[in-house]
Amino acid sequence: MMTASARTHAGRVRPHNEDAAVCRPEHGLFAVIDGMGGQEAGEVAAAIAAAALAEVPNLPRLASETVLAAAMKEARARILRQAEAEPGQKDMGAVATAVRLDDNGRTLAVAHVGDTRAWIVNAKGVRQLTHDHVAEREAGGANKRPVARDLGRKVMEGEWVETGRYPIARGDLLVLASDGLHDAVPADELAAELQRLWREGGEADAVSARLIALALARGGPDNVTVIAVRIGRFRRGRIQRRLGLAVTIALFVAMAGLAGVTLFGRRIPAVVQLPDRVTVDTLFGTTPNVQVEAGKTTTVTAGARLEVRGTEVRGIDWRVEVSEGATFAVHLATIELDGALTVLLAEGATLEIRDSRVKAGSVRVVSTGGGRVVLANVWIDTPGGTPPAFEGPVVAEQTNVVLLGAPAPAGDAQAPAGDAPAPGGDVPAEDTPGAPAGDTPAPTGDAPALPAGDTPSGGAPKP
How far apart are CA 228 and CA 5, in angstroms? Predict the structure, then answer.
């Protein structure tokens, strides 16, 4: 059977992570993206590129090289539009490597821009499928050569997306990585480790975990993202999904892999779950069906930020404890729980939900003092009829909050002056500008994506 895993880490030096990844085993689609442009820009470019690549259509009559190259060009167009609209993001860009399985898993199409990489490992050795698009090193310059092509560059001559097609077979190991891996680990050592991992025959998650650990052991000077795929039986679209199993992930900042899917009746091991403890800025993005197990508690430590963006989070119960000065943010996402969503806000903590839908048996926000709640374009659905509860002193800022299936709660949250409805307001969807009629959810589906040229209204994650 085929297994797939994606992992990322901010590294030991960088304060935030600008990497992203797309991992869609049911479509045989995988991509690693490395954002450029620094805080508040690199991660935005990576998010835009990840969304464009995750939207690659299943068009069997078109060669995958064609659709992957088109997705790269669409990503660049969106990044340039966003950079033009936001002066503070004018220098942002991204590099990316995307692959897709074809011919029922017998060939692999590749599209590539920049210095992310892809390898195939098997009995014949380690074959690098990409070459770095880098500029010549200037005399006396740094050891790291700057990239010569990226998805934010205004002028790109010729056919700037490198494409190719390669034979693969069951048992091969496919690895994609950002430069945080191959810049940190010498080429000979990395090749030997890839060959060793192939011989050991472990599942994809063990491979991605080992490679992340190797980069960190060599100093972790940069963000590092790894996708590992053990090639097995594959036919596009034939994977059956079950509740709580993820199939796509675009990752920003430190997180652990991706959750499982069912392939021809066999379950790919679930390897991506929400973290127990967030100590650095962490962002999940474009990831349908992130799993939340029963009784799950996630603690966001003081000053850190946990953001869920462009994804579906499903499961039983989720309790998020937001420490002093920390933030829990949900953008362009759906949270759907059979049980309760409980958010505990310490002094100075923030809960921010924008352009999203929350559906749970109960929703409860408890502030121990001075917590802040920001709700904008939010649909809260409590099918059991229990209204959302807002307890303790909290400063609330709400715009276009729609309650579905629940009467107006009697809470202490105070909305700001103006026309925006408070969490306690019962606003019918059909009477709310921009809200869906009835129970139409916020953006969901196989690959929730950023609208062309836009980024989520909340902006980029901040450290």
Answer: 5
Within 8 A by CB and 6+ apart from 374, the residues are 350, 351, 352, 353, 354, 396, 397, 398
Q: Which strand (E) or helix (H) includes residue 48?
A: helix 42-54
pLDDT at 292: 81
| Alpha carbons 63 and 55: distance in angstroms, whole number | 16
| Secondary-structure class of domain 3-138+145-267 per CATH | alpha beta
Specify the DSSP element, H or E, that contains 187: helix 187-200
How confident is the model over 65-71, as a mean pLDDT?
A: 92
Question: Is the pTM for the entire model greater than 0.70?
Answer: no
Q: Please say if the pLDDT value at position 142 is more than 90.
A: no
Report the alpha-carbon distance of residue 136 to residue 270 in Å, rounded.
43
Which DSSP letter does residue 147 get? B
In the numeric block, the tokens 């496919």 are attached to: 174
Quote the percentage of the chain above a pLDDT of 90: 44
Give me the residues paired with residue 398 across strands. 375
Q: Is the Cβ–Cβ distance between 315 and 294 less than 8 Å?
A: yes
Q: In the prediction, which pLDDT does 224 show?
A: 96
Give me the residue spans of the domains in the chain.
Answer: 3-138+145-267, 277-431
DSSP string across 205-253 = HHHHHHHHHHHHHTT--S-EEEEEEE-----TT-PBP-TT-----EEEE
Structure-token pair, residue 5:
């895993």
Specify the pLDDT at position 33: 96
Q: Which DSSP category does 134 fall into?
A: B
Strand arrangement of the beta sheet that strand 173-177 belongs to:
3-9, 224-230, 173-177, 117-122, 125-128
Q: Which two three-digit tokens encode residue 228?
A: 């590992």
Listed range (83-92, 144-153, 283-292) with the worst mean pLDDT: 283-292
